[in-house]
C-alpha cells in the first residue's frame, strides 16, 4: 500500500544495497513496513509514530538495542542515529549517536556533518537524502512525501506530541564536554537551504526564507548584491556586527553575516510570524495591541539611538511580532541599518513615513526614526481615516495631516512631541519612554534623559511647523524653521510701518482741525491708550521670539516708540499754539 498522509518519509535501500534490504525485511521492523506503488518495501515514519525513546521531540531511533528500527549487525552502535524535531522550526534533523561517528551523508545534495558543529543536520526533500551507517555498509535513501514547508506544518500540528517536549535521553551524551566558544562559532560559515515561496527580489538585494542546516533554525536571509559602498557599506557592516553580538528583546535577532570581502553579502536574521501591517489589516490590532507595539518600538529605538544607530526605515512592514499567551504580542523592529544600502528615495511606500528633514536630503538622525514611529501609530490607529486615504495623499498633505493630528486628535495628541518639524525640538525615544511608560525599558541612563519642553513651547513649535515639503523632483526654495522666523520678523516690521503711517495721517488731521483744549486733551488721552496697547502687544511678541530676533525687534520697537513720542510732542505743541491764538483773538481790545 502506498504511503499517504500523515506519513513523513520512508527509508528505501539505496541502489539495491543488500544490507539495507535485510534491515527492512527484519521481523523487528515489521510495524513500520509499507510498500511503494512500484512494489518496493520500505520503512515509513508517520507524524504520529510514538518513539520508544519516550521523548516527544524524537520521531524514530535506529540501532541494535532498544530502538525503533532494529539493525542486528555488531558493528552498529546501540543507538546509531535518530530523527529529531527541531523545537525552533519543526524541521526534521538527523543526529549521529554513534561513538565512532560512523553515520555519514552521501549523494549530490549532501551537506555532511561539519567539524566544529554538533553532529546534527537537517534532512528534508532535496537535502541529505542518502544516509550511510557503518560508513557506507548500510545505505538508505530518504523518500519524502511532502515538501519542507508542508512537512514542518504536519510535524507542528501532530496530535500525539505532548505539550512541552521532554529532553531526549541520549541528548546529554552527545553534547561536547565543553561548549564551543563564541569566537569559534562566529568563524564557522553558516550553511543553509532556502524553503518556501520564491525569494523577494529588489534592486540591491534578494530576501529568502531559509533553514539553517546545522541547527534547524528558520531564518530570513538577506543577500546584498553589487560593489561595496563606502562609507555606507562600512557603516552597515559595523552596525550588523554590533547587533549580531548585542541583541535586544525588541529588535529582530541578527544571527550572523558573511561574505563582506566579496560582492555577495549574506545577513542572517531571525524569523517572526508576521508584521504589524498584516496584523492591522486583519483587524486584530486592538488599542491595547497598538499601545504595546508603541512601547516596544520606543524601547528598540532608544537602544539603537543609545548605540549611535539610525534605523532610517521605521514603518508597519518593518515591525514584526511573535504571539504570546493571553492574546499578547512581542513586537520586534526589523532591518535596522539596511535601508540606506538597499533602498532609494523613489520608494513611495517608505516616503510617507519619512521625517521632513529626511525628505529635504538633510542628515538623518535618530530623531527621524521618532517621527516615523509617530506616523506608524497614526496609520495603525487609522486616525481621521489616515490609513484608508493614504494612497490619495501627497507628501505635503501627509505632513499636514500628521501636524494636525499631533495637535488635535485625542488618540495621538499625547505623543505630539514626536511630530515637531525641527528635529532639534523633537522628542527622543528615551524622553517618550519616560513620559508614557515611566522610563521602563530605557537603554539610555535615566539621568541622561533631558526633560521635555513645557506644553506651551511644544504647542508653539507644532503650530509654527506647517512648512510645505516640496516634491522630491521640484527645484524650489526650501523654507526652514530658521528663515520662517525671519519672515515673521519682516511681517512685524511691515505692521509697525503701517501703524506709523496711520498715526501720521491722524496727526495731519489733528493739525487741520480747529478744536478747543478739551478736544485736544481727549486726543492725547486716546494716543496714550494706543501707545499702551501697542507696547503690550510688542512685549508679548518679544517674549515669544528667540534671543536674536527679539533683540532686533526690540531695537526697531524702541526706535518706533521714540518716533511716536516725538510726533505726540509736536501735536501737543501745535494744539497749545492754536489755543493761545484763539485766546489772543478773544481778548478785549
Automatic annotation (TrEMBL):
Keyword Nucleotide-binding in record: yes
Region Disordered: start-end pairs: 476-507, 541-589
Lineage: Eukaryota, Fungi, Dikarya, Ascomycota, Pezizomycotina
Keywords, alphabetical: ATP-binding, Kinase, Nucleotide-binding, Serine/threonine-protein kinase, Transferase
InterPro entries from the UniProt entry: Kinase-like_dom_sf, NEK_Ser/Thr_kinase, Prot_kinase_dom, Ser/Thr_kinase_AS
GO function term, MF aspect, one: protein serine/threonine kinase activity
Organism encoding this protein: Trichoglossum hirsutum
Keyword ATP-binding: yes
CDD domains the record matches: FHA (cd00060)
Protein kinase domain segment(s): 193-438
Reactions catalysed: L-seryl-[protein] + ATP = O-phospho-L-seryl-[protein] + ADP + H(+); L-threonyl-[protein] + ATP = O-phospho-L-threonyl-[protein] + ADP + H(+)
Basic residues bias (residue ranges): 571-581
EC number of this enzyme: 2.7.11.1
Pfam family, any one: Pkinase
Protein's UniProt name: non-specific serine/threonine protein kinase
SMART domains recorded: S_TKc
Enzyme class: transferase
Composition bias, Low complexity: 546-559
Amino acid at each position: 500500500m502506498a504511503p499517504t498522509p500523515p506519513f513523513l518519509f520512508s527509508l528505501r535501500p539505496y541502489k539495491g544495497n543488500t544490507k539495507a534490504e535485510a534491515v527492512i525485511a527484519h521481523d523487528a521492523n515489521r510495524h513500520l513496513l509499507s510498500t511503494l506503488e512500484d512494489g518496493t518495501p520500505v520503512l515509513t515514519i508517520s507524524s504520529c509514530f510514538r518513539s520508544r525513546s519516550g521523548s516527544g521531540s524524537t520521531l524514530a531511533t535506529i540501532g541494535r538495542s532498544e530502538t525503533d528500527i532494529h539493525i542486528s549487525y555488531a558493528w552498529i552502535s546501540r543507538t546509531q542515529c535518530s530523527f529529531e524535531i527541531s523545537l525552533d522550526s519543526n524541521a526534521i534533523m538527523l543526529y549521529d549517536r554513534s561513538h565512532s561517528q560512523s553515520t555519514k551523508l552521501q549523494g549530490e545534495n549532501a551537506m555532511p556533518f561539519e567539524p566544529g558543529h554538533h553532529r546534527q543536520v537537517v534532512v528534508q526533500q532535496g537535502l541529505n537524502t542518502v544516509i550511510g551507517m557503518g560508513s557506507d555498509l548500510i545505505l538508505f535513501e530518504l523518500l519524502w512525501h511532502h515538501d519542507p514547508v508542508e512537512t514542518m506544518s504536519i510535524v507542528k500540528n501532530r496530535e500525539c506530541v505532548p505539550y512541552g517536549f521532554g529532553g531526549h535521553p541520549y541528548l546529554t551524551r552527545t553534547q561536547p564536554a565543553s561548549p564551543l566558544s563564541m569566537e569559534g562559532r562566529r568563524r564557522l560559515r553558516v550553511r543553509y537551504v532556502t524553503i518556501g515561496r520564491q525569494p523577494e527580489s529588489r534592486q540591491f538585494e534578494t530576501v529568502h526564507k531559509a533553514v539553517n542546516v546545522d541547527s534547524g533554525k528558520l531564518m530570513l536571509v538577506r543577500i546584498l548584491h553589487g560593489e561595496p559602498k563606502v562609507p555606507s557599506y562600512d557603516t552597515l557592516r559595523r552596525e550588523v556586527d554590533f547587533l549580531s553580538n548585542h541583541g535586544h528583546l525588541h529588535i529582530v535577532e541578527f544571527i550572523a553575516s558573511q561574505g563582506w570581502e566579496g560582492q555577495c553579502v549574506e545577513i542572517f536574521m531571525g524569523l517572526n510570524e508576521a508584521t504589524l501591517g498584516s496584523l492591522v489589516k486583519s483587524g486584530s490590532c486592538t488599542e491595547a495591541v497598538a499601545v504595546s507595539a508603541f512601547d516596544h518600538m520606543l524601547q528598540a529605538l532608544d537602544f539603537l539611538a543609545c548605540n549611535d544607530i539610525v534605523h532610517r526605515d521605521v514603518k508597519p512592514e518593518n515591525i514584526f511580532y511573535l504571539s504570546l499567551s493571553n492574546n499578547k504580542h512581542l513586537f520586534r523592529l526589523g532591518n535596522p541599518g539596511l535601508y540606506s544600502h538597499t533602498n532609494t528615495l523613489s520608494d513611495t511606500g517608505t516616503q510617507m513615513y519619512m521625517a521632513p528633514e529626511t525628505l529635504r536630503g538633510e542628515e538623518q538622525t535618530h530623531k527621524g526614526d521618532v517621527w516615523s514611529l509617530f506616523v506608524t501609530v497614526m496609520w495603525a490607529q487609522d486616525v481621521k481615516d489616515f490609513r484608508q486615504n493614504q494612497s490619495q495623499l501627497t507628501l505635503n498633505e501627509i505632513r499636514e495631516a500628521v501636524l494636525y493630528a499631533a495637535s488635535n486628535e485625542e488618540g495621538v495628541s499625547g505623543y505630539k512631541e514626536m511630530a515637531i518639524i525641527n528635529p532639534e525640538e523633537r522628542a527622543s525615544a528615551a524622553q517618550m519612554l519616560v513620559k508614557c511608560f515611566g522610563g521602563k525599558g530605557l537603554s539610555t541612563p535615566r539621568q541622561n534623559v533631558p526633560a521635555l519642553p513645557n506644553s506651551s513651547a511644544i504647542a508653539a513649535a507644532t503650530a509654527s511647523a506647517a512648512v510645505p515639503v516640496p516634491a522630491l523632483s521640484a527645484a524650489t526654495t526650501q523654507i526652514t524653521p530658521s528663515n520662517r522666523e525671519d519672515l515673521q520678523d519682516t511681517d512685524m516690521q511691515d505692521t509697525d510701518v503701517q501703524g506709523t503711517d496711520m498715526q501720521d495721517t491722524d496727526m495731519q488731521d489733528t493739525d487741520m482741525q480747529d478744536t478747543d483744549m478739551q478736544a485736544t486733551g481727549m486726543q492725547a488721552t486716546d494716543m496714550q491708550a494706543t501707545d499702551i496697547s501697542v507696547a503690550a502687544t510688542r512685549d508679548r511678541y518679544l517674549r515669544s521670539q528667540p534671543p536674536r530676533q527679539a533683540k532686533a525687534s526690540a531695537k526697531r520697537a524702541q526706535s518706533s516708540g521714540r518716533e511716536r513720542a516725538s510726533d505726540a510732542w509736536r501735536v501737543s505743541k501745535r494744539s497749545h499754539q492754536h489755543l493761545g491764538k484763539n485766546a489772543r483773538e478773544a481778548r478785549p481790545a
